[in-house]
Amino acid sequence: MNQFLPRGCGVSADRRIRTLVSEGTGWQIYVTNMDTYVLAVTPELYRYWVDRYSLPEGIFKDLLAYSYKVISTSSDYLISSLEKGPYPTDSVQVEAFSIAFKTTLDLFPGIDIHDAIYIEEYSLILPVPSDGEQVDNAVVYGRWLTAGVNVSIESFESVSKFLSWLPINSLIRSAQIAGFKLCPNTNQDIEEDQKGVLVSNSDENDIDFSSENGRRFTLVGRPELEQFFNENIIDIVIHRKQYERMGISFPGATILFGPPGCGKTFAVDRLVEYLGWQRFDIDSSSIASSYIHDTSKKISEVFKSAIDATPSIVVIDEMEAFLTDRGMAGRSGMYHIEEVAEFLRRIPEAISKGVLVFAITNMIDLIDPAFLRRGRFDHLVEVKMATNEEIEALLISKFSELPIDKTVNASIIANKLEGRPLSDVSFVIREAGRLAIKRRIDNMNMQCFLDAIHLLHTRKEKPSIGFVTN
């Protein structure tokens, strides 16, 4: 192979090129003297990724005396060609790939990723231009898992035979995360493998996310967020010993980002209520201080209290107030950098001690890049405004608990509330109840809801000081 970068070429202060392990048109993957991976690409391929797939500028860097763009991973992170390898060697790599796989297909429906580069550290799958025939995504996924065997993940029994190193339940879980519905061919409902891991083989093959008291975590109206919480947090908490065998001791920290009113805080509140753990909040009102070093001290105290109370939850609300990019350093200069550094130290420590960490923000673009890498916040979850269908599901759920007249049509109400914050949905339900009482009727009728929606629009469009009367 004609190497882009010669053996011994330095890619960082302590990493040098050792071996070329995989290559294709416009790219090469190397292993360094520190057993980490390096990807080198041509400027043309780099620009293709930036223009076509919105690759963030700054992830790749230039090497002096070479014309290629280069990215070097931290320890234990994989860089792989989906077609040529290197291939996964443990369940953590498989699950991380599954998340990136699903995210990429959701962002770019119909994309051809059979010839693509996967960068685990940044959860990126970047397609390489290809003139060949598009390969089914189930085959792409199965082929990568089995180190190049041309087999679909939907042929579950065939795939599992090539993966003796991967427990069946991990394979099922990862495939479900990637978006595939599997039906293993077995007559047993539940079996236990040789290592003592419970394996579900029901027809639907769903993981049971019910807690020990039998309650299942639900987030009415937000099915995708509910699934994320169940699969990436609750299942790890409930089946902790099984995950510890795989090197996963506790759920990673999570950032929820999205526009105001989309339901980020509501979702975290419901999770806290479900788990029943002690909650510790970090926000401007609780820790901000005008005194030098005092804010950093308060941050440390909150995390220490959370660690002492484990299992517990820390919620960082409006994280942009504390964790903006240190390069901006507009507020208080070095003291802001000190606060960011305190979070960088405390978050991994808290997770290792059994503290569940959540951060909430409306302005993800302002957050310091150090927090967007895995190791601090493993999950970056966008929460969008509720869709028409999600609002209708929430209304129907609430209506089951309230005196509602048969004239009420949840679909019509949802149409009128589409695109509005979930807090507005709650307001309309409360206001319809108030109007029903005011009108001396036993049940909320459709007119109550229509008048409540009208009042909602009136208050939005014509803000006033004082009382609003009906």
Compact description:
The chain has about 475 residues and is α/β, with parallel strands linked by helices. The protein contains 15 helices and 15 strands.
Count of the separate structural domains: 4
Second rung of CATH, namely the architecture of the largest domain: 3-Layer(aba) Sandwich
Helix content: 25-40%
Calculate the mean pLDDT score and round it: 80
* Uncertain runs: 185-207, 328-335, 460-470
Largest sheet: 5 strands, antiparallel
Structural class: alpha/beta
The first-level CATH class of the largest domain is given as: Alpha Beta
Q: What is the H/E string?
A: EEEHEEEHEEHHHEEHHEHEHHEHEEHHHH
Number of strands: 15
CATH topology of the largest domain: Rossmann fold
Q: Approximately what portion of the residues adopt beta-strand conformation?
A: 5-15%
User: What general outline do the C-alpha atoms trace?
Assistant: globular
